[in-house]
Write a structure and sequence with these properties.
mainly alpha; 90 residues
Length: 90
């Protein structure tokens, strides 16, 4: 996994969230980001990290994304390590 691949996966995840108003609404509610900010910062690595954090915090959501995207859940976790703000668990 490289930072570019991590961002690509996170962008796919963002697109997946945005495809369903309920999924996107949950992300916006948790992060406090508004639709305009989301559009302006869609490629920002900090925002993309928040997208992956959101998926990783909800196993049902994570597995639904991975099923639709044909991604491995472990790849989502690996991708998160390559974006800003990752801290190894203690």
């Amino acid at each position: 996994m490289t930072p570019d691949l991590a961002e690509s996966l996170a962008l796919r995840a963002l697109g997946w969230l945005a495809a369903e108003p309920e999924r996107l609404g949950g992300f916006l509610a948790v992060t406090g980001v508004g639709p305009d900010v989301l559009r302006d910062r869609a490629t920002d690595s900090d925002l993309l990290a928040a997208v992956l954090d959101h998926l990783l915090a909800d196993e049902t959501l994570l597995l639904a994304f991975c099923g639709d995207d044909a991604a491995d859940p472990a790849d989502v976790a690996r991708a998160r390590r390559h974006l800003p703000g990752f801290a190894e668990p203690m």
